[in-house]
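Input/output pair, single chain:
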Amino acid sequence: MSRRKHADWQAEIYDKHAGWLAGTRPHMAIGDGWADVVSRLFDRISQALAGEPSSTKIVIIDIKEKYGELRVEIFAPVGPETEAAIDQAILLAELRSECTCDECGAAGRMRSTLGQSAWLAVKCDYHQSGYPRTVGERSPKRRIKDRFGLFEITYDRAADSIAKISVAER
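Output:
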């Protein structure tokens, strides 16, 4: 997405997906650089809802940045398969946010301000001013446990996908 004002891209995303959104539209407390991350998230949620009745509505409770990462909280009264697809979409968005500059959307790294109460943010090399210490060098990773076992997930920014490896296989 091109560089636009906060309210403009947020309104576009909400308007595009008005068919499945219920409740009020919360302000997204995130940088403009994550507009594409959130747009992809909403598109993936929309795809996940394709198998649900057209009357299904989802409430977006909160979309914010915390500890340099995107945090998404929703209420979705859907079946287990749709819920798993929505959870996967949220996980992808959270991982993408960990390597996307929150100001411009370019590839970035987790960085920190100096001091005891350091703030975290994802910044590209151009926007890193004020965040001199690099915290994250590698691709974003997570360990998750689901009904199938314990897995390590690694995010690939270029493919916008995750690789899931069973911890037991290691």
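Residues 62 and 73 are 5 Å apart (CA to CA). The longest strand covers residues 58-66.
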